[in-house]
Design goal:
single chain, Elongation Factor Tu (Ef-tu), domain 3, six-stranded mixed sheet, alpha+beta, 3 domains, Rossmann fold, 7 helices
């Protein structure tokens, strides 16, 4: 007897925070955790002791709840990506506190790559600065569908409405330039708690909701189950005695059901789904991001790295099968990327070798303009790169599917990840 498909978990929200140094990202996260009662007693005690050692006075330094590395606590900055998990009565949250420094752009890309919403902090005293532009550009490049712009430290500008309105106008101009559609603005004081979890009596002119309520009620438009059906094959399960062959993996988009006509890529062989299975039995359907095993009606040659997609129709876009990939690449290594470089490339479950055919441009973050034909990409640079791979890959544009439209580049000598790519 088959069991019904599991509904997609919509109560989980993935958040990335970004802002310039000292804008108060870690304090904001600490305030969210503290005011939502998501801190254990022993954690609170440790933070209280660390706060007293740092300041020599009373009071709780909420930033220490996320600044976990010793180097961060000594310098009062965020270097690594600090992940925190908490929940309210309405929703569960995975929150990534990403670095604000220019030299840690790669860390921000890592932390924000799976986010549903980006919280971008702006210091009310300074307004939109270069780092704000950088972080907003990266958020748009990564396809994060929602932005929550928190104008922090309103207490230091006398909770002035005109200061907030001026920053909103400036940021809206930037959002239009980048094509960002969903932006919400919040005047807050993370230190004092204004408009973070609770409303603010000091800003009666603000008629919107506090930040946490917005995050609790945000509707996720980028539901992976709403995409075209994609299933990267991770493992082939064989039982020769039972004449059984199944293909295990995680749905990267859409829904597949028994009886659906599918195509195995890059070979292009067509077949149909015979069954959708889990350890607990057969399912009526598999929806992203479920992990399942597919059985196919025909004995086709499919292996790890192949992609099973619904057979092309008028209402679905087929993946592109190619050996030439053009992508925006964030370069993460000290040694620069140059034309002719040879690297390993990992795309979904496929691993291939890649050669850099050309560097088309590099982004000037200060102006958001693309400078053509750079000689190299340096550490934390972002630019358009053309790659030639050793065998065909089935890919989508990153704007259509963040899983099948992305890849990482690996230095084969050190086995270190040196780049992250988003396919154009």
């Amino acid at each position: 007897m088959s069991t019904p498909v599991t509904t997609i978990e919509t109560s989980m929200l993935r958040i990335a925070t970004a802002g310039s140094v000292d804008d108060g990202k870690s304090t904001l996260i600490g305030r969210l955790l503290y005011d939502s009662k998501a801190i254990l007693a022993d954690q609170l005690e440790q933070v209280q002791e660390a706060s007293e050692r740092r300041s020599g006075a009373g009071g709780l330094d909420l930033s220490l709840l996320t600044d976990g590395l010793r180097a961060e606590r000594e310098q009062g900055i965020t270097i690594d990506v600090a992940y925190r998990y908490f929940q309210t009565a309405r929703r569960k949250f995975v929150l990534a506190d990403t670095p604000g420094h220019v030299q840690y752009t790669r860390n921000m890309v890592t932390g924000a790559s799976t986010a549903d919403v980006a919280i971008i902090l702006v210091d009310a005293r300074h307004g939109v600065v270069e780092q704000t532009r950088r972080h907003t550009f990266i958020a748009s490049l990564l396809g994060i569908p929602h932005l929550a712009v928190c104008v922090n430290k309103m207490d230091l500008v006398g909770y002035a409405e005109d200061v907030f309105d001026g920053i909103v106008r400036e940021f809206c101009a930037l959002a239009r330039q980048l094509g960002v559609l969903d932006v919400q603005f919040f005047p807050i004081s993370a230190l004092q708690g204004d408009n973070v979890v609770d409303g603010s009596e000091a800003m009666a002119w603000y008629a919107g909701t506090p930040l946490l309520e917005h995050l609790e009620t945000l509707s996720l438009a980028d539901d992976p189950a709403g995409h075209d059906a994609r299933f990267p094959v991770q493992w082939v399960i064989r039982d020769h005695d039972a004449d059984y062959r199944g293909y295990a993996g995680t749905m990267a988009g859409g829904v597949l059901r028994p009886g659906d006509d599918v195509v195995v890529l890059p070979s292009g062989v067509r077949t149909r789904i015979a069954a959708v299975e889990t350890f607990d039995g057969e399912l009526d359907a598999a929806a992203a991001p479920m992990s399942v095993t597919l059985r196919l009606a025909d004995n086709v040659d499919a292996s790890r790295g192949d992609l099973i997609a619904r057979a092309p129709s008028s209402d679905e876009i087929a993946p592109t099968v190619t050996r030439l990939v053009t992508a925006d690449v964030c370069w993460m290594a000290e040694a620069p990327l140059r034309q002719g470089a040879r690297l390993a490339l990992k795309h979904t479950t496929a691993s291939v070798r890649a050669v850099v055919d050309g560097l088309d441009d590099v982004v000037d973050i200060s102006t958001l303009e693309r400078v053509a034909a750079p000689e190299q990409l340096g550490l934390n640079d972002i630019g358009q790169v053309r790659l030639r791979v050793s065998r065909e890959l089935a890919v989508d544009p990153y704007a259509l599917n963040r899983t099948t439209g992305s890849f990482i580049l690996i230095d084969e000598a050190s086995n270190e990840t040196v780049g992250a790519g988003m396919i154009r």
